[in-house]
Amino acid sequence: MTSIQIHEFSTGIRPQINADGSWVSLGFTGQYMNVTINAIPHAVERSIANKEFAVAEGAFGDQPAVIGRVVLDSTTSDWSVVAVVSRGQDEKGRSASFYRYFLCEGRDNLLNIVLWMEEYERKNQCKPVFNPSETKVLGQATPFNAQNTSYPPKELLQNSTSTPIIINSDKRYSLQQINASAAALANGQPVAWAFNAEALEKPLSFIVIQAASERAYQILQRAAANTPKVQTPLVVDEQALKSAIKSLMGSSTVKPEVVGIIAEALSNKQVNQQYWENLFDGQGAINAIRQKIYSPQMVRLLTLRTLIIPQKLGEYLDWLEIKNNANKRDLNSNITCSLEFQANLIPTLPDSSIVQNNLNYLFKQIEVYNPPANVLDNIGDYCLDKLHNRELALLYYRFAIYFTARTNKNNVISDKLFKKAFSNSRGQENVFGRTVYSEQYRRDQGESDVPKHIVIVFVLLSFFLGGLGGFVLSEMTREPQTATNNAKTPPDAVGTDMSQPSNPNNNLNITASNNNQITPIPKGKKQKDAFDKFEKVTIPVINKIINDLDKQEKSLPDGVTRLNIIAALKETLGNSNLNESVLDSSIEPIPELKNDWINTIYSYQLQKQPNQPAKAEGYILPTGNVIKSLKQDVEKNLKKTSIPVAPLGN
Fold first, then answer.
1. DSSP conformational letter for 534
2. Nearest CA to 262 among 281, 240, 282?
């Protein structure tokens, strides 16, 4: 028979012991008393702080409540913990709850603590309640011979349809039976039960609850029905999360250890979007939106909320009144407060796959809000001049360039904005996979038609990307060499890596074939035909494939954007360095870029028909096997990807 060690500790008070042995509390000390274990496990302390053993204040019965649960600990072993909760008084006669905790290492020892308690009750005619008159010695646990057999009442299991099972007081079960029933119904989850309970802080966190009275039964039933169904994930320290959020709200100074708590929760798949929403709303986010509350604390809170829940982006930008700043020279104080907070977050947030995964979702929202371009430009200027944060400024400038180019047929950017983002450029750069040109570059090329300034930009997307330090910034601002290999890396480029080609969709898990050897199309008639038909035949066919897939939302993963489709097309053809600017039928393609596409298409056709090289033509007809095969291959690659819509995956 195995002997186990049962430790204990109690609520810390300054007791006044009367002559008859009764006692009153002169105040709580904030420390535990009568501790027998050398160090109370951190997971147990956090479970208590998160009110997982708490009875509702004011709900007292004559008999003590007993609460048992398994506390998980990811760093060491799990713990079986039973709390005996009894009523006491202070010197003024006011009632309060006092807790005596019993714990044993391992998740299978709740039964043994219960058996020991029943043995104690038989000997002492009462449960082991809170008693400051008893003196416990540190390191002296209570030994007990362990048992592992207990059987639940059949009627409880047969009548259970959902948890928590709340048992009325007219049906009395023993502690053993309550524990056995909870264990039988746990279904892989940690066992949790309450015995003789009047009211509980978190009723939905229990599997079985034995009500102390008819009144208690009604209270518990209503509480379970009215409690929001979003419960704290079992491995999350909710109080620590709330404290971290409050710390970030309260000051523009960002502490890395505070951010670490939030980053850890972000990596937890059990923490879903609804839980985050409830957490932020509990700190005042929803009231700030509805009532237009613009304190610095609320600005920081909602900025953090939008980082974690990107679906709130449009609501956040509306609340910040971004569009109302279109005709103003200076940014309003709420925007600058948000920017200061963003700049302070950058060096503290670790690289995170959460934001990488959210990238596609954020891109899909680009056209929804449509903020003015001059506001975005002003934000970049503020980041550079006031915050002295060149990384954040460059990212804003380059997003302005990228989204301006998306609606500009010639991909031409004003010289002023272009120079802000690329101070030492020759005038042609690749921004997030799109080739853009300065006005001066186009003039030098004989291009006189410079389009008007476009207003479709995306103001705060860069927060979510730049806010996670070097990861997204280094990936998204990477500037590949052009096909002519003449482009130079501007010295102000942040996090660039010229050794790898640019891919604006690095989060796509597409099977790449960039290492495949591209076979040039033979010179002569075949090459001439491919060049002649490129603009007339090949470009319209490729654009049709892209457009068809862009409309084909139901059969593709959530979050797929046009950018993803273009990236998948390049990877399918076997050359991620292809420049999509040639697909714009309104401009004459640069011969070198056009040649890349023709050779790549020719190589793709050779690979698809290795035994019929004569059928590889370097161009794609609107009918036939090539267009059908290419579209199917691109679609297949897209379906292999994982593009979650939410920031938190569950």
1. I
2. 240
Domain coordinates in residue numbering, the chain? 3-226, 525-639
Least confident of 74-78, 390-394, 598-602, 628-632: 74-78
CA–CA distance, 320 with 322 (Å, rounded to integer): 6
Q: Is 19 exposed, middle or buried (0-12, 13-18, 19+ CB in 10 A)?
A: exposed
What's the pLDDT tens digit per position in 186-223? 887 899 999 999 889 888 889 999 999 998 999 888 88
How far is the C-alpha of 302 from the C-alpha of 281, rounded, in Å? Answer: 10
Give the long-range contacts of residues 592-596, CB within 8 A, separation 24 or more: 592/483, 592/484, 593/483, 594/531, 594/534, 596/483
HSE-up of residue 362 (Cα within 13 Å, Cβ side): 25
Q: What percent of the chain has pLDDT over 70?
A: 77
Characterize the bridge pairing of strands 412-413 and 65-71: unpaired
Taking the alpha carbons of 314, 319, 322, 326 in that order, is the dihedral positive or negative? positive
Tokens of 157: 């299991």
Model confidence pLDDT, tens digit, residues 519-535: 889 888 888 888 888 88
Q: Are 451 and 444 in contact (CB under 8 A)?
A: no
Q: Residue 1: what pLDDT?
A: 63
605 in Cβ contact with 615 (< 8 Å): yes
DSSP line for 90-137:
BTTS-EEEEEEEEEEESTT-HHHHHHHHHHHHHHHSS-----TTS---
List the beta strands (DSSP E) in 332-447. 412-413, 428-431, 434-438
Within 10 angstroms of residue 154's Cβ, the number of other Cβ atoms is 9
Q: Is the peptide bond before 203 cis (omega within 30 degrees of 0)?
A: no
282 φ, ψ to 5°?
-65, -20
Q: What order of strands is seen across the sheet that includes strand 3-10?
A: 142-145, 3-10, 95-105, 79-89, 65-71, 192-197, 208-211, 165-167
Q: 30 in the Ramachandran plot: left (φ > 0), alpha (ψ -120 to 50) or beta? A: left
Residue among 550, 548, 606 at smallest CA distance from 574: 606
Of 51, 48, 42, 37, the C-alpha closest to 5 is: 37
pLDDT of 409: 66
Spatial separation of the C-alpha atoms in residues 607 and 157, rounded to whole Å: 62
> Vertex 444, ends 441 and 446: CA angle to 5°?
115
Tokens 């006669």 appear where? Answer: 93
Q: What is the DSSP string of 536-558?
A: IIIHHHHHHHHHHHHH--TTS-T
Tell me the Ramachandran region of residue 559: left when phi exceeds 0, alpha when psi lies from -120 to 50, beta otherwise: left
Tokens standing for 450?
């410079």
Digit-coded pLDDT (tens) for 71-120: 988 677 899 999 999 999 888 888 889 999 999 999 999 999 999 999 99
Strand order in the sheet with 428-431: 412-413, 434-438, 428-431
Cα(330)–Cα(519) distance, integer angstroms: 55
